[in-house]
Amino acid sequence: MESHQREQSKSLLDYVDLIVGAWFHPSGLERIEDTGFDKASEAGFSSVRTYNYEHSEKIAGELKKRNMSLYAGVEVRSGEFFDASDLVHDWRSQLRSDHVLRTHKLGVPLVALCRGNELREYLKGEPPNWRFTERISQALCKLLSATKSLIHEHGFSTPVTYAMEGLELGQDGKLSGWVVPIVEAVDVFSVNCYLMEAKDWFTLDAFKHNRQFLSDEEEAKSRLTRLEHGLRSLLGELEKFDKPLILSETGMHAGIGFRTEKRTGEKETVITTREGKRIIPIQDPKGFGKAYMQFASMLRKVSRDFPGRIKGLYIYEWRDNPYHGKIQTENSPVHACFGLCHVDGTPKFELSNLTSTLAMA
Q1: CB-based contacts of 211, cutoff 8 Å, min separation 6
Q2: Which of 8, 187, 255, 333 could covalently link to 159 via disulfide, CB atoms 3.0 to 4.6 Å apart?
Q3: Which segments within 156-277 are labelled E, that is strand?
Q4: Is residue 4 pLDDT above 70, yes or no?
């Protein structure tokens, strides 16, 4: 009997090595079947991330056909952005117990249940004009605890997590004070982290910065070294709490410039910037693929030094998204270029090489 109870308390993370997944946006699709799950599964991707129950419900049937797992989001926010004001005001309003329980009835293996993504309190000024605050941390911890109790009361053992924006480490390499309670509250710690700094996200200048990253060996080495150091510091901190890590969003983009001609090629898409300028992003698939393989090799090295600690990663994103709201709301036109595939679903490089390298971690 005790053995059976211990087995019941285990989750998918206890039975698999590093899970390699991606985020698949539905923008611009007439049929959910065209999302790209077939190509992804063939290339070695075994899992999918969603941000809310509605998306999980739409794709569950497609995931079951391919035996893919789900890092399932039950969102916590107010309005279009990741505004945490409703959570801070009344955390109980964000429990969404119906979505938590219905997620468990989708018939898809669950990697984790993620309660919120990059929650923020906004300030005046241009992006990045937000921060993760003590008030968010306190309310979120109560929500995470209530979600875990709800899940256990109904006989489920799905790990509960929250997707933190960035590694949240101080200059001394230690976890920020308001993050420690989150680490203690979750079953697995999740972070959204990229090979990018603030200047690499915003305005048209971000294309120029990425061109240097994809073409300059020293710049690439510098970014990879910084992220590796940060991951090692974070994993060292998480060991103190015996908590594993999931990279809930990670990756890079292929944009290196733009042009304004009206004529577009087969794999080119016009986007509109916040200032109303219509541009066609120029991408470097070859440099993009090389950088991804270097990134994968770095992760493999870190994972081997922290055996069993990195449980999964979700690449942002599967397909280019010229419809992304942040192109305008955050003045981030490079958000159109993060796909492993072009808009039409054509891979930018050999993706099976990427997943096989990560699988060796």
Answers
A1: 256, 257, 284
A2: 187
A3: 160-165, 189-192, 245-250, 255-259, 271-272
A4: no
On average, the pLDDT of the chain sits at 91
- Looking at this protein, which amino acid is placed at residue 307? P
Please report, for residues 80, 129, 321, the alpha-carbon distance to residue 121 in angstroms, rounded to integers and kept in the order given. 13, 9, 26
> What is the pLDDT at residue 262?
65
Where does 31-122 show beta strands of DSSP type E? 47-49, 69-73, 110-117, 121-122
Structure tokens at 19: 């899970």
What pTM did the predictor assign? 0.93
Choose among 175, 147, 174, 150: nearest CA to 161: 147
Give yes or no for residue 146 having a pLDDT over 50: yes
Strands across the sheet containing 271-272: 255-259, 278-283, 271-272
End-to-end CA distance of the chain: give it in Å, rounded.
35
Tell me how far CA of residue 21 lies from CA of 210, 234, 267, 274, 304, in angstroms.
Answer: 24, 21, 24, 31, 19
Whole-number Cα distances in Å, 124 to 128, 135, 205, 207, 336: 10, 18, 22, 25, 25
User: In the predicted model, is pLDDT for residue 286 greater than 90?
Assistant: yes
Mean pLDDT of 283-304: 97
| Cα-based distances in Å from 233 to 124, 133, 168, 281, 297 | 32, 22, 11, 35, 18
Residue pair 337/254 in contact (Cβ under 8 Å)? The answer is: yes
pLDDT digits (tens, 9 = 90+) for 211-243: 999 999 999 999 999 999 999 999 999 999 999
